[in-house]
Amino acid sequence: MTAFRALLIIMILVVLSYTGIVVATHGFGFIPVFFGDIKAMGWSGQFNLDFSGLLVLAGLWMGWRHQFSPAGLALGLFVLVGGTPLLATYLLWASLKANGNVNVLLLGHQRAAA
Asked: What is the C-alpha separation between 96 and 99, in angstroms, rounded?
C-alpha cells in the first residue's frame, strides 16, 4: 500500500505541475482544443476520447462506491472534471481511511462489511 500511495502522490504532483505550466503558457481554454482534437479524428483526439471514457468510468465508480448518494454523485462529477489529481487525492485519502484494506478501498465500508 505504501508504494501505491507514493505513486498517487507522484501522479498528483506531476499532473498539477504540468497543468500549471500549460495554463501559464496557453491559458485555460482547453475545452475547444480537447473537443477540436476529437473532431479532427487524429491520435490526439483518439487519446482524448479514450481518456474521457476512463473519466466516466472513474466517476461512475465513485458514485457507486458511495451508493449513488448525493455526495457520491457530486464526487463522481468532480472526478469527471478533475481527472487524475482529484481521483488520486481521493484514493490517497480513502486508502488511509481504509487502513490499507483493499476491499474497503475499492468497495467502501458498507459493501466490504457485507
From this structure: 5
**How far is CA 81 from each of CA 1, 41, 74, 103, 114, rounded to the nearest angstrom?**
26, 22, 11, 26, 31
- Per residue in 27-83, pLDDT (tens digit) is 999 999 999 999 999 999 999 999 999 999 999 999 999 999 999 999 999 999 999
Contact 112, 100 (CB under 8 A): no
Where do runs of H (alpha helix) occur along 41-101? 43-65, 70-97
| Cβ neighbours for 76, distance < 8 A, ≥ 6 positions apart | 59, 60, 61, 62, 63
Q: How far apart are CA 111 and CA 89, in angstroms?
A: 22
List the grid coordinates of 63. 458514485
pTM of this prediction exceeds 0.85: yes
